[in-house]
Specification:
The chain has 25 helices and 16 strands. It is an alpha+beta fold. It comes from Colletotrichum sidae. Pfam families: HET, Het-6_barrel.
């Protein structure tokens, strides 16, 4: 009977429905409610005071009935339980809940109402966060949170938590581990709320106190008060860490769409399109995204990616696309469009370089420009980009974790090729070292550290080749032969290395250990090191092949690996290429490199 209910309450563009849940003397009474149509005035004020419900739909096969305007309306069991628990005994509760207030079967209405949701939660008198039915420790948990709400100082909050003997700490930890915190829609609902209360069964506590406890635990952890000696508190601290997106910088816009997409990449949605639609209201994504449930998942993702790149001039999204995009039954995505539905680690885990973008500026801010002459539609699968071809992959070797992985990687390089200059002008041995430790600091103050790492790399290379490198008559490493002409460029390094090798070999061993630690610290996922036919040395966190292309595309802060496909190129991954990461190629204006077009497919 939903159609009858919605026909009686049609909506104009600035209108929304609210549910008036009638009071009942006990939770056992049937749920009875009515719908009314409301609106916002020109100043954004709602025509009625209302609450908003934040919940998860739960198992879609578990249904229940609510009587709305004298008609039976079937809803999910989760929604029915929430409304039953929240209704008053004497007065009606006026509340907005998407499962009833939006006609979910009307795709046009849904497309209009969804962009409204950020405002609906922001303007609600209070947002009711419904976690589901109470567990064995829920009463103790809410009791602990409410005691912390009454605390006057941070120290009182800490003492309430650390001295808890009633199971409250374990209860809060359990609540923070519920499915609710994995859903992308509730992320928006909680973040924009001006005031919120957490409900679990018949128990409740202010959401702001949960946030306060999280802040206190953060500071206590920094003081080393949270750890092995307080295992239950440490588990609570870790539980808050898993929902950090909900608790930090509340009430503030997330800024750019790219930030919001990365922040929520681990969250889930029943409809893959909602991985994007649910972010409207939290950031500027509405400038690049049209909510339209008549579009396919593939077309929504492609249109958003193209529009974001076009309007910002940035190709950051490429780093979340590429090789790992799985085939989709709903239509294969172009290699330059991320699969925003990814759940296994999300976009942040998809390419380690996403988290490193801010350190690099390979193209010196040169932006991507959409070629409007192509007349490509918003969902077309081709993206025309421009940039420099750095070269084709000539050799690729694995770089794995640990001493053995590092040494195998070093041993795989042809030492003879180290005796030459990198296209960037630096010594090849220096480029090799930078690649191995993923050097992201382009500052003069680190000169001594870099010298030590380079000597450590040379020493590690010697160890990995088991003494097979050229040696002088006195048995020391023959750096002049190893480095060739570069030995003059690195004369200070050569002199220092030879001095230490002859007088203080233990210092070289310290440098080797420092190099090994730097390699391991920023190693990330199993990597592949590569050389190009043009002499560049780099690494990628994705499997790469001989003849893959390494390019520097305008709009991307780091180079990318591309693979030839049909008439264009498929994106494989971002990559690190020594000698270009900080804009060196743009500064040099080398006539050898001419701007080329790259058609991404």
């Amino acid at each position: 009977m939903k159609d009858t209910v919605y026909r009686a309450t049609p909506l104009q563009r600035n209108q929304f429905r609210v549910l008036h849940v009638q009071p009942a003397p006990s939770v056992a009474y049937p749920l009875v409610a009515r719908l009314s149509v409301e609106s916002f005035d020109k100043d954004g004020r709602p025509s009625v005071a209302y609450e908003a419900l934040s919940y998860t739909w739960g198992d879609a096969s578990e249904k229940a009935v609510v009587f709305v305007d004298e008609h039976e309306v079937t809803v999910t069991r989760s929604l029915e339980l929430a409304l039953r628990s929240l209704r008053g005994r004497e007065r009606a509760v006026v509340i907005w809940a998407d499962g009833i207030c939006i006609n979910q079967q009307d795709l046009v209405e849904k497309s209009i109402q969804v962009p409204f949701m950020g405002r609906l939660y922001r303007k609600a008198n209070i947002v009711r966060i419904w976690l589901g039915e109470a567990g064995a420790a829920t009463e103790a948990a809410m009791g602990l949170v409410n005691r912390c709400a009454a605390a006057r100082t941070e120290e009182e909050v800490w003492q309430n938590v650390v001295a808890d003997k009633r199971g409250g700490v374990e209860g809060v930890t359990e609540m923070l581990g519920r499915r609710y915190w994995t859903r992308v829609w509730v992320f928006q609902e909680v973040r924009v709320a001006s005031r919120a209360t957490v409900h679990c069964g018949a128990f409740s506590a202010p959401w702001e106190t949960f946030v306060k406890i999280d802040e206190v635990l953060d500071r206590q952890h920094a003081r080393r008060a949270v750890g092995e000696k307080t295992p239950k508190v440490y588990e609570l601290y870790m539980a808050f860490g898993r929902i950090v997106q909900f608790t930090h910088n509340l009430g503030q816009s997330l800024g750019t769409a790219a930030v919001a997409v990365n922040m929520t990449s681990r969250f889930q949605a029943g409809d893959p399109r909602d991985k994007l639609f649910a972010l409207i209201g939290t950031c500027d994504i509405g400038s690049y995204l049209t909510v339209d449930y008549t579009m396919s998942v593939r077309d929504v993702y492609v249109a958003f990616a193209r529009r974001l790149m076009e309007k910002t001039g940035r190709l950051d999204l490429l780093l979340g696309a590429g090789w790992h995009n799985p085939p989709r039954s709903k239509g294969e995505l172009p290699s330059w469009t991320p699969d925003f539905e990814l759940r296994d680690g999300g976009l942040l885990a998809a390419d380690a370089y996403i988290g490193m973008m801010s350190f690099f500026n390979a193209t010196k801010g040169t932006k991507f420009r959409l070629n409007t002459r192509l007349g490509a539609g918003a969902v077309d699968g081709i993206l025309e980009t421009e940039g420099f071809l750095l070269g084709s992959v000539e050799e690729s070797v694995p770089l794995d974790h640990g001493d053995e992985g590092r040494r195998k990687g070093l041993a795989a390089f042809d030492v003879g090729r180290m005796a030459g200059r990198n296209p960037s002008g630096k010594a090849q041995m220096e480029a090799l070292c930078e690649m191995m430790v993923f050097d992201y600091e382009n500052v003069a103050s680190k000169k001594d550290d870099k010298a030590q790492l380079l000597m450590g790399c040379i020493r590690d290379l010697d160890v990995s080749r088991r003494g097979a490198l050229p040696r002088r008559r006195d048995g020391l490493l023959d750096l002049a032969t190893l480095l060739g002409p570069d030995s003059k460029v690195l004369s200070s390094i050569v002199d220092k290395y030879n001095y230490l090798a002859g007088t203080r070999p233990e210092v070289l061993e310290e440098y080797r250990q420092k190099f090994a630690e730097a390699y391991e610290m920023l190693h990330g996922a199993p990597s592949a090191a590569f050389t190009t036919g043009t002499g560049y040395i780099g690494r990628s966190n994705r499997p790469i092949r001989t003849n893959d292309v390494v390019a520097m595309l305008f709009g991307s802060t780091i180079p990318v690996v591309l693979r030839r496909r049909d008439t264009g190129y498929a994106v494989v991954s971002g990559c690190y290429v020594s000698g270009v990461m900080f804009g060196e190629l743009m500064d040099a204006r080398n006539p050898r490199y001419k701007v080329q077009k790259f058609l991404l497919v």
